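Notebook entry, structure prediction.
Reason for the run: the old model in the group folder had no record of what sequence produced it. Starting over properly, with the input documented here first.
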Amino acid sequence: QVRLVESGGGLVQAGGSLRLSCVASGSIFSINAMGWYHQAPGKQRELVAIIRSGGTINYADSVKGRFTISRDNLKNMVYLQMNSLKPEDTGVYYCYVDGPYWGQGTQVTVAS
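New structure, fully documented this time:
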């Protein structure tokens, strides 16, 4: 079993920045993909960004140029640097690891 714990959410004004962190613990042998999903109020969970062990990164079109995903394999952590935040970025952000495993989510609220 793998446990994921996110941190770094909060309330920010439009145009501001937040950095989300997620640490994985438990039965970790090798992790391929780590990433972040976003669930806006009343909508389905959608991929924001994913980074694979080989370094391949994919972003949702809506966050390209604003968000940056990175990972620290030694610490089993994945990060999401979110800049130029918009009100539509509001929602719960979930950490994801191949398994699949999910974190409990961290709330991000962007005020206009």
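Summary: The CA atoms of residues 48 and 60 lie 5 Å apart.
The old model has been moved to the deprecated folder.
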